[in-house]
Structures are given as structure tokens and as C-alpha cells.
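Reply to dn_fold:

You asked what the input looked like. This is it:
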Amino acid sequence: MGTNCHYHSGADAIWQCTGCSKDYCGDCVPGSVDNYYQSTPKCTLCNKRLENVGASNKARPFWQMAPFYFRYGIASGPVTVSAVCAVAALAMTGLGILSIFVFVATLAVVMRYNLLVIEKLASGQLEAPSFGDAQDGRSAAIFAKVIGMILVAGGVGMLFAGLGESAVQVYSIALSLLAPAAMIVLALEQSMRAAVNPLKLLQFTLIIGWPYWLLWLSTSAVSAAPAYLLPAVMDKLPVWMLLPLIAFVTSYFSIVTSAMMGYICLTRQRKLGVIAQVDDEEFLEEREFERKKALANAGIFLREGRHDEARKALVNVLRQQPDDIPLNERYVQLLLATDDKKALRELGPHLLERFIKLNHAHKAAELYLAITKSQGAPAIDKSLLRHQIAEALYRQRQFKPALALINNLHKEDPHYTRLDSAYLLLAKIYMDGFNRTDNSRKLLAFVQKKYPKSGVLREVKQLEGILAAEQNAQPV
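and this is what came back:
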């Protein structure tokens, strides 16, 4: 319980690969099982089928769930079953010999529902089944198996009776201790033979471990609850209400004990070999699924040092979705992680331009800084791109690299159509980043003289006003 994803330590594991012993969360295995071929997600690393462990991994220890068991018994399904028992008990009072058949039928329904509770909880379904879920035509068969178990237990008890009173007492104690295990095995395997096999029951208790004995104490106490509660209210109720009340309360506590049995199986789901209910995520459209799966696979491969496979996973989807920001970011991370200088030199400007065109100038600035740190500033031969990245760097207060990009732009490309805006940006950089107000004033004056009809003149004059106010505020 409580296993975290191997690649995201803050996330609970939902899937497990027994081949390479890796645990995965929903980010590593995105989408619904229906997004995968034959509804079977496979391990990114070894391609073996993954096992869903979501429900059992999230399950809290058995002894911490006491409120859950008692709330479980008042859900709509359990209350309906208990109400049916109460109505049946009331009806039996006037049916004479027919009451035996009503009693047997009601008991069969209750047993079927209780075993269904164990089965559903063991597989990870925490919501109580409805009354209709238990009406699957198996009530009679289940009841027959329970009767068969009782007869087998009675027959064995008669054999022990021939060995003396002490043997009978030992057998009675063993029968009491293994009763919860027998009910659980019957619910999970639907086999009377397995449910009366002492070796099978002993194996079950060993798999569960010491919490099984806590389960036995809890179910024994809860099962005895009606015997202690009913005497307290019997004198206060009309006689005709007593039998329905006994039936209702007994049914309620039997469902509570079944919930305990099912939940303890959930905590040992994998060891018991219980088929888990898939903790399914939202189904994703094909394009979105391919994108998320590529990101997940690339991240896993990158962590494992399998860089070629990570690149292949990304490139295959980037060909179809070239403008996807997360895919491009992950690709950049891959190039930086592998220190692929050639690819960064060739693809760097192209990726920077893509981020700019997608209105993610801040991402372009971050990429520029990362490439610069890795292998020096990339060569950018497009003046507009240099200008745009310099603006993004300025907004991030990265003044030095912004200055390096924009400082000599007028010399390297004197025909650049936005030189007036570039001079204004340079003035801002000098003022805010280096406190070179003298340079800023010269640049602002040059823009007004050189570009008298420029669209940036209003901002130029505002900046001049700020500089003038600052100069006047300085002490003489």
C-alpha cells in the first residue's frame, strides 16, 4: 500500500509492471484503457502487460476504516436489502407454513448480497452494489453452497465428537476462527470445495497476516451487536415491530461484517490474485492521447537514459503536431539533456521562432538562456527574431543577454524595418538594467530625430519624461 510512481514521487502508482518492477501513475499511462490496443496498457520499457493496482495502492489499512464499514451499511443498496428482510419478517407472521419458504428465500437473497459485497470491495469497488445487482439468478446456488458448507462442518464436527469433548472444543474454536476466511473464499472463488478446504483457508489467513485476526475480532463483535442492542429497545416497541426490527438490524450488521471482509481483501488484492477493477481515467481523443503518450514515453526514456527512443517518440508525434508547445518543450529538454550541440545549433533558432509564432515569447527566452548556458549564444540571423527574443528577455529582467542580442542590430542589419522600436528597447535596457541614463537619453533623442513619424514616439516621450523627473529629483 502507498506505493508511489517510480517517475513521479508525489503521485500514487496506478499501474505496475511485473517484468521490470516499475510503478506508473496516470501521467505515465495517460487516458483510459479503451485508448490502448485490446484495452491493455503495456510497459513503456519492456512492452509487457501492466497490472492495475490503483484501488489497492490507495487503500488505507483495514483498522483505520471503521467509519467506512458502518456508513457502507446505510447506503441505498444495503438499506434496501435490510428493508426487504424487515418486510419479509413482518409478512412471515401471517403465512403459517409458507413462512418457511419466505425465510429461506430471504436468507438466500441476503447471503448472495453479502457475498457480492465481499467480491466487489475486494476488486476495488468502494460503492455498495445495488439490490438489483444481487438479483443475477445465483442466489439459490449460493444458498445451496452455504448449506453444503454447514453440512460439511457439521459432519466433521460429528467425527470430532467421537474423539471426546476436548476435540469438539478445539474444532469449535477452529471453526469460529476460519469462518470469515471460508465466506471470503466462497465469495472470491465461488467454490464450496475451496471454502471448506482447511489448507486453502489456512493459506488465506497467512496471506492476510495478522490483520486477519483483527478482522475476526471485529466481525465477531459486530455480529454480536444485535444481541446487545435489541434488549435495550424491546420493551419500548410494540410486539409486532420486534421481528422486523430484528431482521433489519441483523441484516445491517451482516453487511457491515461483509464490508470488513471485502476491504481486507482489497488491502491484499495482488497477493490474493483478485482481479482488480480498473481505476480508469477519462477517455482521450486520438490526437490528445498520442500527444500525452509521447510526452509520457519520452519522459520515461529520458529518465532511463534511452535518449534515441525518447527522441523517436517525440519526433513521430511532432511531425503530426508541430505547433504543440509541451511537445516542443520536451524535445528541447531532450536536446539539452543529451548536450546535442549539433541539433541545438541547427534547430535552436527554428525552435525559438516557433515559440515566438505561438505567442510563447517567454518560452523562447527560457530556451535561449538554456542554449546559451549549454554551449553559448545561438546564432540568430533573423533580425525580427533577435528583437522579439530580446524583448522577452527584457521582460524577464535578463538584461545582459537582451543587450547582447539588440546592441549591434542597427549595424548588422541597417535595413531592418523596426529599428526605431529596437532603439527604444535598447534605451530601456540601459536605463533599467545598467542605470546608464545618459545612453538612454541619447538613444531617445536619436529616435525622435531619425524617425519623426515613428509609431513609438509617444512611448519615447513618456520615457523622456520619466528620465527628466528622476534627474530633477536628484539633490544638487
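The mean pLDDT is 87.
Hope that clears it up.
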